[in-house]
């Protein structure tokens, strides 16, 4: 018998995991409030006081609609993503290299007046491809050895196309793929060899950027794909470079890091209150890359901890969804996407509090953005689709013998 409750549940707009929906709601509310506050200086200069927040809010509303649409799609259809996504990502990333540079980087494409970063799409496509390979090339012992070769082949191509314009995005994406391979049961010998190569290469690159002469850095920046080498070197050398005497600190040399630290240092426990930030008028990119510093300044340490808590809950809730999936593909897909969102969030927060060098990674679902907000909402929709439509493992009930 079909009851009214079942009918309402069937036609509900918000199906799937309710905790994930609540996380999206809270992040959205925090985003709208803090972006409005952080962009007030820009609004004052342009004279369009409501334009930044109305634009951001409209993007978020469209993003939620995209989440609703995507989460209605049965998750089995996401297996089709790699077929068109890989060639499309390679094509778009290749074209982006020849577009007009913004801040010495060619990351953006414009289609029909709408700008977007192909790397945002490529990240999700690569995760879906890795999930498909891990689920299809496995046996009772775990992933087969050939799965590692296929994943590395696709990952290297995509990441190498991202590296010249956005090193941090490429490194973060590869880190997520590495964790997915660990979860997916790639043989330890292959993972161990890869980790050894990564450690040696990473240490060598860090040492070079830290200690190489400026003349060498400048001359090598003329090589193909290395035009951002001076930027990478300055960020590595500038991180943690604090003079012993506070009077010698140059407030104008690195205004992002400097004013982010001031914002955090003056927040107290409860903060200044929403809309009362002082450093938003001095902090570059206060509404995007460094919005977490404004969050802490206005909402205090408790507010900053609450935002971090939301991302941690997202990861653990996604892990629970994955553990209940009967099939491997949706489980790997939901873990990969949640890892990507949470890893990016943790890197952004680490940069804002001065633990990590500046990377230019926005805070997912909070920072001001257009297409990045839409794409992240789509990724949330995929996670919700898995929670809604993926076939669940049969529940095992233990019978107690008298």
UniProtKB/TrEMBL annotation:
<keyword id="KW-0133">Cell shape</keyword>
<dbReference type="GO" id="GO:0005886">
    <property type="term" value="C:plasma membrane"/>
</dbReference>
<keyword id="KW-0812">Transmembrane</keyword>
<feature type="transmembrane region" description="Helical">
    <location>
        <begin position="80"/>
        <end position="99"/>
    </location>
</feature>
<protein>
    <recommendedName>
        <fullName>Probable peptidoglycan glycosyltransferase FtsW</fullName>
        <ecNumber>2.4.99.28</ecNumber>
    </recommendedName>
</protein>
<feature type="transmembrane region" description="Helical">
    <location>
        <begin position="57"/>
        <end position="74"/>
    </location>
</feature>
<feature type="transmembrane region" description="Helical">
    <location>
        <begin position="365"/>
        <end position="386"/>
    </location>
</feature>
<feature type="transmembrane region" description="Helical">
    <location>
        <begin position="193"/>
        <end position="212"/>
    </location>
</feature>
<comment type="similarity">
    <text>Belongs to the SEDS family. FtsW subfamily.</text>
</comment>
<feature type="transmembrane region" description="Helical">
    <location>
        <begin position="290"/>
        <end position="316"/>
    </location>
</feature>
<keyword id="KW-0808">Transferase</keyword>
<dbReference type="InterPro" id="IPR001182">
    <property type="entry name" value="FtsW/RodA"/>
</dbReference>
<feature type="transmembrane region" description="Helical">
    <location>
        <begin position="169"/>
        <end position="186"/>
    </location>
</feature>
<feature type="transmembrane region" description="Helical">
    <location>
        <begin position="19"/>
        <end position="36"/>
    </location>
</feature>
<dbReference type="GO" id="GO:0008955">
    <property type="term" value="F:peptidoglycan glycosyltransferase activity"/>
</dbReference>
<dbReference type="Pfam" id="PF01098">
    <property type="entry name" value="FTSW_RODA_SPOVE"/>
</dbReference>
<dbReference type="GO" id="GO:0015648">
    <property type="term" value="F:lipid-linked peptidoglycan transporter activity"/>
</dbReference>
<dbReference type="GO" id="GO:0051301">
    <property type="term" value="P:cell division"/>
</dbReference>
<keyword id="KW-0573">Peptidoglycan synthesis</keyword>
<dbReference type="GO" id="GO:0008360">
    <property type="term" value="P:regulation of cell shape"/>
</dbReference>
<dbReference type="GO" id="GO:0009252">
    <property type="term" value="P:peptidoglycan biosynthetic process"/>
</dbReference>
<feature type="transmembrane region" description="Helical">
    <location>
        <begin position="147"/>
        <end position="163"/>
    </location>
</feature>
<keyword id="KW-0472">Membrane</keyword>
<dbReference type="GO" id="GO:0032153">
    <property type="term" value="C:cell division site"/>
</dbReference>
<keyword id="KW-0328">Glycosyltransferase</keyword>
<keyword id="KW-1133">Transmembrane helix</keyword>
<feature type="transmembrane region" description="Helical">
    <location>
        <begin position="328"/>
        <end position="353"/>
    </location>
</feature>
